[in-house]
Amino acid sequence: MKKIKELDEKIFLLCVVFIMLIGLFEISTIRKTSFDAQNAFYYLTILQSKGPRIPGYAAHDMAVDFITSTLHKNGWQVEIQAGEVNGHPYRNIIGKMGTQATKLLLGSHYDSRLIADNDHNPDWHNYQVPGANDGGSSTAVLLELSRILAVDNRTGIALVFFDIEDQGRIDGWDWILGSREYVKRNSAKPRMMVLLDMVGGHNQTIQPPSNSDKEIYRQIQQVAAQFKYDDHFLNASQGVILDDHVPFLEAGVPSVNLIDIVDPNWHTTQDDLENVSIFSLQRIGDTLIEWINHTH
Ligand SMILES: [Zn+2]
């Protein structure tokens, strides 16, 4: 009887060790990267504290200053591509490290939309969109990526913050004006482009449109699955989206649009900090850092 009891205890202990090992393995497969979503969220709160980043407004100028100074602080060379399009001044902000040609361009627009024409209250359609998710979340993620990529001394990557993406269906304006100018004025094209847009919603479902590179997204989805983020990185949709990746696609650059188009606060006055999730920022950041480590 005693022997059997000792054997039982040994088996029990072996089981405990086995379960602990499985647990450790699980933790190691879903480990977090050095991407710090709290830091990304901090960048976002600063961007939002200035007000909607409407081209021509002081808050827009302050956003340009903040993006530029953060890139500098994180060790990047910054170039501002300034000009005028459709009579509107614009500034694309380009961060680079080293002198190597750009292999990978990571992009985000940073302007906020002039009118909240999707708001549930028609009286608010002439209000400005705060743009915490639409323009803000992706900008904050790129800024946090700039901190990590600098620590890793990554060259051959450009971070581009596009101006006036979000002013379509407004008299005298159009969509994606900044990125169109960027592609027009840069004859040297990157090997590939990854665009982030509206990546921070609470119910994050990244779903690229059909006009988005399938192979690059397959790789990104595989990396997301390693973190068990599968539910947040859906297969490409059937729909087409006009976004800042389109001028690159038209120029023959394989480009992916990482977008969550089902945000209920899209182009409303509720697109504010409350409706951005720190966990969503962590998921997109982990996935991108790990994908970059694998492929660049
Ligand atoms: Zn928008």
Describe what you observe in this structure.
By secondary structure, the chain is α/β, with parallel strands linked by helices. It has two domains: 1-31; 35-295, 3-Layer(aba) Sandwich (Aminopeptidase). It has a six-stranded mixed beta sheet with strand order 1-2-4-3-5-6, with helices on both faces. It is globular and about 80 Å long. The longest helix has 28 residues, at 2-29. It has helices at residues 2-29, 37-49, 58-73, 132-151, 177-185, 214-226, 246-250, 278-295, and strands at residues 77-85, 88-96, 104-109, 157-162, 192-197, 255-259. Helix 2 crosses helix 8 (278-295), helix 4 (132-151) packs across helix 8 (278-295) and helix 6 crosses helix 8 (278-295). The protein is built from eight helices and six strands; from the N terminus they run αααβββαβαβααβα. Bound molecules: zinc ion (ZN). Residues 113, 134, 166, 267 line the site of zinc ion.
Helix proportion: 40-55%
Q: What ligands can be seen in this structure?
A: zinc ion
Coarse structural class: alpha/beta
What's the helix count?
Answer: 8
Q: What pattern of helices and strands is seen along the backbone?
A: HHHEEEHEHEHHEH
Average of per-residue pLDDT values: 92
Summarize the structure.
The chain is an alpha/beta fold. Helices cover 41% and strands 14% of the residues.
Supply the key terms.
296 residues, alpha/beta, Aminopeptidase, 2 domains, 6-stranded mixed beta sheet, binds zinc ion
Question: What's the layout of helices and strands?
Answer:
Elements: H1 2-29, H2 37-49, H3 58-73, E1 77-85, E2 88-96, E3 104-109, H4 132-151, E4 157-162, H5 177-185, E5 192-197, H6 214-226, H7 246-250, E6 255-259, H8 278-295
Parallel strand pairs: 3-4, 3-5, 5-6
Antiparallel strand pairs: 1-2, 2-4
Helix pairs in contact: 2-4, 2-8, 4-8, 6-8
The structure holds zinc ion.
